[in-house]
Amino acid sequence: MPFKPIAIHLPQFHPIPENDEWWGKGFTEWTNVAKAKPLFKGHYQPQLPADLGFYDLRLAETRAAQAAMAKQYGIYGFCYYHYWFHGKRLLQQPVDEIIRTGQPDFPFMLCWANGSWTRTWDGNEDILIEQTYSADDDAAHIQHLVTYFKDNRYIKIDNKPVLAVCRTEMLPDAAATAALWRNAVKAAGFDDLYLVKMEMFEAGVPPEKIGFDAAAEFQPDWRNFPPQQRKPWQRIANRLGLHTSSVYARHRLIDYAALAKKMLAKPVPSYKFFPGITPGWDNTPRKKKGGLILKDNTPEKFEYWLKEALQKYAPVSTNENFFFINAWNEWAEGNHLEPCTRWGTQYLEAVSRQFSQQQK
């Protein structure tokens, strides 16, 4: 049984009033991308878009070009981040336009990014908009989502719309939320709801324990990094308690190949599980300190990881066969399949080769 590759999609490439207020007029992810600078010799920054350019997701032409490119290289569908804060939505325009216009004709699903937004981009401090929860909000939320589920392009498993949640551990009662959502979706005419918990900061919890159907591997796996790459003098300085201004003191540098090796050595979970992979990671364009750099990533190393993962894992069933790639377009995190000026379409070509091999 072949896997279906799902690329996680960030809809932050258009201005919204809230980002204007928090970050300055006209802010989008491109703002951080364009101002990035290399922090050490060989550091690939700025990472700049090639084929699709500095696009605006409010434009139908942009959305069509993304879908056409994804389809050309064998991506099955997009998983759009969905932002809902107790009834307030953010960055909703691209997906709303996909629903309204019926274009592009390309499968999609949603992933509720349910963390608070902060100035540090990690949900830990200086809150810009806080995530809160209640049963009433769960009910309102699922009624809103049903409007997306009814679209015939929405990804489903046996007439069950697939909905992912980033941080299930943040839900006060995940099982109660899941039960409420399932009842509402059944009342709307579907057989059920297919719920996926993204394993971002919590793993090893069988999804059925919280009323979910499956888990998905989110890469990079924050909990299982190999040791940070450091220069000898930096390790000595750390032992002596000396603070330096070097990139090693301000950011974490992890070897991409070492990460891939460690991820491939992880045991296969006993529960329903969709594997995942990342082409790279470098969020220093967003963060002055505390960033993470997956160092020395290349299309060849990415393809090796992908090939080995496809051999290691088997789809759960004929229909439960997703493989999540993080991400399609996280440019300010150095994490994108979309072509850049250094690598062009090489990451996409690797995806096309490896997933097409499954058909043979």
Layout of strands and helices, then pairs:
Layout: E1 4-9, H1 17-23, H2 29-35, H3 60-72, E2 77-85, E3 88-90, H4 93-101, E4 108-112, E5 117-118, E6 127-129, H5 135-149, E7 162-165, H6 174-187, E8 194-199, E9 214-217, H7 232-239, H8 247-250, E10 251-255, H9 256-264, E11 273-274, E12 276-277, E13 291-295, H10 299-312, E14 322-325, E15 329-330, E16 335-336, H11 346-357
Parallel strand pairs: 1-2, 1-14, 2-4, 4-7, 7-8, 8-9, 9-11, 10-13, 12-14
Antiparallel strand pairs: 2-3, 5-6, 15-16
Helix pairs in contact: 5-6, 9-10, 10-11
Could you walk me through the main structural features you see in this protein, from its secondary elements to its overall organization?
By secondary structure, the protein is of the alpha/beta class. It has helices at residues 17-23, 29-35, 60-72, 93-101, 135-149, 174-187, 232-239, 247-250, 256-264, 299-312, 346-357; strands at residues 4-9, 77-85, 88-90, 108-112, 117-118, 127-129, 162-165, 194-199, 214-217, 251-255, 273-274, 276-277, 291-295, 322-325, 329-330, 335-336. α5 (135-149) crosses α6, α9 runs parallel beside α10 (299-312) and α10 packs parallel to α11. It is globular and about 60 Å long. The chain starts with a strand and ends with a helix.
Biggest sheet layout: 10 strands, mixed
Sheet/helix structural class? alpha/beta
Number of helical runs? 11
Q: What's the pLDDT, averaged over the residues?
A: 92
- End-to-end span in angstroms? 11 Å
Low-pLDDT stretches are 239-245
Shape: globular
How many strands in all?
16
Share in helix: 25-40%
If you compute it from the alpha carbons, what radius of gyration comes out, rounded to the nearest whole angstrom? Answer: 20 Å
Listing every helix as H and every strand as E from the N terminus to the C terminus, the arrangement reads EHHHEEHEEEHEHEEHHEHEEEHEEEH
Strand content: 15-25%
